[in-house]
């Protein structure tokens, strides 16, 4: 029956009590906006019994609402001053259960996670998990790729990130945000923008605005035999965004006739720019380019 951690007064009280100083190098910007927090919980569609991995619980503003919505939360955190705060400030009992039955924190860089080992004993790994996080922005894309490639059985990743990165993930061909990041993600995950969050919703306030994105594993993933090769080819195609595809392909396919043949087979004009191609067309290009 205390007021929520994510309300500005309660956050301020916690900050005063434990002398919390937000660590910039760890991307610590705490959410102090209950509408934004509930927006994330809603976007993640949290239901009682859900097994949730949270990355970076901070002082627990989102964690608390994930627990109250019925979730069981396993959190990765690197700041060793936070577990004590979380144990004291999160509700001692949730739905009649003790906090430690519903919440576990591991002091570990999420990029070094070994999900199967870390989660075993706390989660039932025969069932899927959800990932929900207000991410540390300095490692947004490595985290997304680590999760996508981890083999973790997840139904969704609901992630708050810098708005600009969210726009790149969501972009469609033809837009200036469409690029290698879009393609690397959209060949594995469906991308849905859930909500935008103003920078005033954080403490301390970051310079940039944020967005919450929901990423869901694609049911029919396009077949990409060698992802490293594919990502490299895409990157090369975008190496000079303002130049034509033909120009960007010169290092990959030095022979002009072979390049012309490939471009014709894609059904596009030689003057096409990389951002105007579809993901399927990039897959076709990668098949034609010899592997390194
Ligand atoms: N969830 C809290 C909130 O919404 O107020 C805090 C979010 S804050 C943007 C990011 C959190 O990620 C911080 O608590 C930070 O210490 C933690 N963090 C930073 N690097 C991390 C890493 N490599 N692995 C796990 N957590 C990390």
Radius of gyration: 22 Å
Helix amount:
25-40%
Small ligands present: S-adenosylmethionine
Q: Could you give the count of β-strands?
A: 11
What characteristic shape results from the CA principal axes?
A: elongated
Spans where pLDDT lies below 50 across 5 or more residues? none
- Summarize the helix and strand pattern as letters: HEHEHEHEEHEHEHEHHEEEHHHH
What structural class results from the helix and strand content? alpha/beta
Strand order of the largest sheet: 6-3-2-7-8-11-9
How would you describe this structure in keywords?
elongated, 13 helices, 19% strand, 36% helix, 292 residues, two-stranded antiparallel sheet, seven-stranded mixed sheet, binds S-adenosylmethionine
Helices and strands in order, then pairings?
Layout: H1 8-18, E1 30-31, H2 34-43, E2 51-55, H3 61-68, E3 72-77, H4 82-89, E4 93-94, E5 97-98, H5 99-102, E6 103-107, H6 115-119, E7 129-134, H7 140-148, E8 154-162, H8 163-170, H9 180-186, E9 189-197, E10 202-203, E11 210-217, H10 227-237, H11 245-248, H12 256-265, H13 279-288
Parallel strand pairs: 2-3, 2-7, 3-6, 7-8
Antiparallel strand pairs: 1-10, 4-5, 8-11, 9-11
S-adenosylmethionine (SAM) binds at residues 26-31, 55-58, 61-62, 76-79, 109-111, 134, 136, 139.
